[in-house]
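Worked example (supplementary).
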Amino acid sequence: MRSDGFVSQFADLFDEYDVLGAFWVNIQLTLWSALFAAILGTVLALFRISPIPSLRWAGTAYVNVFRNTPLTIIMVFLTLGVWAQLHVTLSDDFDTNFFRLAVVGLSVYTASFVCESIRSGVNTVPIGQAEAARSIGLSFLPAARLIILPQAFRGSIAPLGSTLIALTKNSTVASVVGVATETSSLLKNMIEFHSSLLVAIFLTFALGYVILVIPVGLATTALSRRLAVKR
Amino acid sequence: MSTQNVLFDAPGPRGRRRILVGNVVGVLIVLGVLALVVQRFAENGQFAAALWTPFLHADAWVNFLLPGLVKTLEAAALAIVLALVFGLVFGLGRLASSRTVRWLSSIVVEFFRAVPVLLMMIFFSFLFSVYNVFQSAYVPLAAVVVSLMLYNGAVVAELVRSGVHGLPRGQREAAMAVGLTSGQSLRSIEVPQALSAMLPALLSQLVVVLKDSALGYTIGYLELLQQARHLGAKDGNILQSLLVAAVIFIVVNYLLTLVAGRVRRRRRRTGSGQGAIAVTTAVATDVGVTPITGLGEGGRI
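After joint prediction of all chains, the assembly is encoded as:
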């Protein structure tokens, strides 16, 4: 085994393990969770800015609970609690079931951050805008739809972008739920059996995340700059 | 400004009636969701007293939960202190006058901000045990602390940089005018102000560190989550002990968030907060920078 050069050993690893496939699993986890977190987070944000006290309270409680709970606990709870004890199954297929549980965990956790991003966007709108809208006779819904929310949306792009980045990285925690094909499980496998290539293997995975994450950051920063409301 | 003022007028009689109806509907929805959860628990016998009473005995706390919490806090405390040092070094590096130093620091910071903490923990736990860097008993702790230090240090470096950028330009000009060099101005005028301005953001970051320390579970660090699992395995009440552990995390983190909010408001009130406000905006708009205070207090992932 050692007779081969470092480079050819390293190249052999890619034949033996499906590194790109593992990244694809994480991307799928990220996209599904982003979709559900966006829906749930928007609903929560609407709750939190609504005039109805009970909904506001529910939104605040949700955010405080899930923003302060480690994602790892949520994931462990989903497998050992919700699945094993409460017998909630999301699919008859074992792997699909775990994948969906991971998406549930990531969505539930990320939704609280989506909610806060949107709310912080609403907070960037100066009060004068709302006052001006009212003074020209717009009532609540038209004012929200035409004046407040368009500006709020632009203000929330940057925090939403960093939430998406965090979600991408958090998708590795799916290994805790038993998604065994994603990157952190594969990394563990690979360095367990090839400890001589430890550093090279880690750098490969790390570089993969750099490539995934940095364009998202650049894109959302550029977008939020371009759409920024000049004040 | 509060969202309330932006979005609504004070409601009139009709508005108040509608709000009342909405309120009742809202309460019903929340109760409905809770009822579903309770029903599921009851169907599976999770409310049995035997599953909950262990938490009333000292054994669960003295032998499992409290030692776990201590380990969690230990890792978090070590990590935040080291992250501050790391962040100062590379934050200053990104502000240095030498182009090479700036580039190197930028690469280090951007790299560690992009790599998932879990991957780092797995890597370091193998690295430390293969090369015998630490005694085997300390490997999990070391891996947790080093990974958290690198990620959060990179975040702190960004805080330092944007904090310095957010200072009024007159600070640097005044330092130059009294004859300090660029480096001296940075060290003795600008960075101290940036540091005191970023105190609330640093406290919020501590919440992130505490939450991420739970990832140590995957590499065998005996922190709160791991201990809760052991406790659950012993008494056969895994669901309940995970819930209790989650509540402990929520309480500790919520208290930290409250303290951070209080520090932030206090700084604003006493007028030393000009810098703090500057950090808020600078962090939120800087290139590729995660808005830390933009999400509200403790709003980091």
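Two points are worth noting when inspecting this output. Chain B is about 75% helix and 0% strand. Chain B touches chain A through 70 residues (CB under 8 Å).
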